[in-house]
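Objective 1.3, modelling of assemblies. Example input:
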Amino acid sequence: MATDHLGTEERYAVFPFYLCLDVSQSMAGEPIAEVNAELPQIRASVGQDPAVAEVIRFGIVTFSDVARTVLPLVDLALVEAMPKVEVEGRTSYAAAFDHLRRVIEADYYTGRSEGERWYRPAVLFVSDGRPTDPEERWLEAHRRLTDPSWRRHPNILAFGFGEAVPEILATVAENKPNRAYVAAEGAAPSAVVPELMAGLVQSIVSSSASAYTGTPQLVPPQLPNMQAIPVDELE
Amino acid sequence: MSTVQRSELRLGELLAEGGEGRVFEVLSAPAGLGYQRVYKELRRPVPVPELSSLVAFPYLLAGRDAPLSARVVTSSAWPLSVVVGHDPELALGTVLPRAPHEFWVRHRDGTNRLASLSYLANDPDRIAVAYGVMMPAPGAPERVALVYALARLLDAWQSGPDDSQVVHGDLSAKNVLWSLRPAPAVYVLDCDGATVTTGGSEHPGTGKGRAEADERDEADKPDDANGLDGGDQARVTETTAAHVGSLNGDAGSLNGDAGSRNLVAQPRAARARATTPNWGDPAVRPGGPPTGASDRYLLAIAFLRVVGAAHFPIQGHQKGGQKVNVDLELPRSWRKLPDMPGLWELCERSLSLVNAADRPTPGEWVAHLEQLLGVLSAAELAASVRQAQGDLRPATAAANGSVAAQELPSVTVPDVVVRPVLGHRPPSTWQLISARPPLGVGGELFAGRAGGRGPFGGAGLPGSSGLTGVSGGIGTQPPMTPRQMLHHVMVMWGAAHRAAARWARSPGRRAYGVRRMAGVLVLDVAAACVAVFVVAMIISPWIGL
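Predicted structure (tokens):
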């Protein structure tokens, strides 16, 4: 019988979540203001609940022409205030996917060096438009991010509103059921964004509950104003 | 009042919504139910006897021993009444007491939260930095007293008349609240999901009434990033899906009469309920009904996590079939205490999966913890716990060393070893992280990561500047003034000395600490030489050299 040593240093395995936000020009005005108004809510719901915070790590990546990390992967309990995101240029999905792959790899090794154990990370991809970069380029970046031979490839939940194209979101979510959502037609961003953010919090909290088991699940949010994009079952 | 009509309750706002059901404030209820009540409506109604047996339990217990019954009423949100609708056979839910105000904590940001065990089963430095809530140090008598209060409650639950006992089944961090004022006390929630089992049904194995909550029972293997299999069917799970199986549960309860006599007469196993992850008993098969022994297992888990102020994620290792060695770090002051092999053995037997049905009773825990509080010179804490639980009698067994006398010849547990490790905890490095608006291109805001303990601790924590928040973001900070730089150097100098001294005093890290201390002293001597040289160069012209 193998022997395992267990001390104070060993903590529950953590569930990393990356919020990947589109900050292209089309988000200007109300949508981005709503996002900024809702981000503190994530901190309040996740960070201020000790039972949730101890198993969740949360990071925010924004993308437009370039992608950047506005909140590195952290324990939300220790975040004093959430960053504000600002509108930038166009919508490069490729930049987002490439950045995510780099960040996840780096965070994983940093976490490991600190004794963290990880569950498969989850990416919450939020976009209000179609990619402006050439299709083959972002598909290639997406393929690298979701490459099954890369052991840390994340699960992706995709959410769209505004000009987002359901088929593209389904592709981003790897055509898996209950992974891609698009706002009901005609729904105003001011209504969709708060609901979406609340849904994300709920998804994170529910997933955190399952994260204790050793067999966590990525729990999709329940979004009354959004519809899951149906996907075909592959042969 | 054992049952009330749903129409007799005037409900206020929705307080909470979870997998089991919804909780409403009760604005007014029939006389006799009292104040500060909530109504918990189940998603799926259950046969009335399942809940009325719970309501009746304290009364039955009082017939045997009034103070035992008082423990149940004071230390848990015990169901007061079953709520029925048109069908008198089906319970829609229960009326429960609200958690008293002392079981709430106030965070630094002014919000109030239920004081769950998560605050205790965590590094106190992290809780202080994150929430501004001060927790007792690991191994503090207050922590022991809280486990003592929980053990006493379980003792009452498992001492029902005619071999009946309460199986809670979900004694998790979020379901056990704590308070240190006015006396150490616990308050267990979700008791409407508990079951009163009767003689002979302690080892359920019928497989009936199995919750559909599909908890997969795989080993904890997050390291190889397989924890999530990318499940093609991402499933919506409910954290607590209790009651799912209760409708097709054991036949006895459906035929039962609400009268308490009949309840005792019918053997019944615990209803299955989904346990909270990491607060489950690995000996219970996934989805299977919990037993009194699982509650005893979780009492031991609570002891480790609360007294040791850490996570101790032992279940993952146990599910993997490994033998687990638990190093419980305790303060050095415990050196002065007499050896307590009985206590560690009690932990091991409670945590073992080998003879799960025969795990030590809560009564044994009560006796050992009473003795422990005695040797920690905190017998008055034990007395205040008893008093808060409505028991004015003096300590029962332990105080005068009768525990030692009762001890069985030592039992070897093959799969769990619990060993106290006395020493100073290494300094922690928890820091608050501040966010700022994004800067120009490439301006990644955060340079530092928070969390964990590391060799460069001590800079401000525990104790001082950590609580005010330390900004991350070296790349975005303005250059330091010479004064700030000097301050920074002085802080680092102090921290390096403190850390080295702490390690040198700690048994496990002595050699490392001594080496570090030597290094620090060499640097000190070098700095002193430089300082003397500079001073000498400055004053030499003045004294004519």
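Residues 15-227 of chain A form a domain with the Rossmann fold fold (CATH 3.40.50.410).
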